[in-house]
């Protein structure tokens, strides 16, 4: 069984997609659906495999690596390394939050 999802995209994107489909010679019925399904499956796979890893770096060397900060702290403690002496990075880097609206102080 196949589900139906209605999606609204810009005219520009639609023209570009249809141009690609016609250029590749896939103008048969269902080519657009197949393209969208493949794109969505690929996107979902990247979301599943995208996992944040935290690394502690000291003097240019990775001294500890973990899936979360609690595990990283435990590894640093076990290795008798002060967390303030290492640089901790996350890969991939977390997305920065965009702040909107007024920011100020109350009078």
Q: Can you count the helices?
A: 3
Query: How much helicity do the residues have?
Result: 25-40%
User: What is the rounded Rg?
Assistant: 24 Å
Largest sheet: 3 strands, antiparallel
User: What is the approximate shape?
Assistant: elongated
Give me the side-by-side strand order of the main sheet: 2-1-3
The mean pLDDT is 85
What fraction of the residues are assigned to beta strands by DSSP? 15-25%
DSSP strand count: 3
Low-confidence stretches: none
Secondary-structure element series: HHEEHE
Q: Could you tell me how far the N terminus lies from the C terminus, measured between alpha carbons in angstroms?
A: 62 Å
Please identify the structural class as seen in this structure. alpha+beta
How many domains is the backbone divided into? Answer: 2
């Amino acid at each position: 069984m196949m589900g139906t999802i209605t999606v609204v995209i810009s005219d520009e994107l639609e023209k570009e997609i249809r141009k690609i489909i016609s250029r590749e010679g896939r103008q048969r019925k269902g080519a657009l659906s197949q393209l969208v399904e493949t794109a969505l499956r690929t996107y979902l796979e990247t979301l599943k495999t995208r996992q944040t890893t935290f690394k502690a770096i000291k003097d240019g060397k990775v001294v500890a690596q973990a899936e979360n900060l609690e595990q990283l702290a435990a590894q640093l403690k076990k290795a008798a390394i002060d967390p303030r002496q290492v640089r901790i990075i996350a890969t991939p880097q977390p997305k920065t939050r965009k702040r909107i609206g007024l920011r100020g102080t109350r009078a």
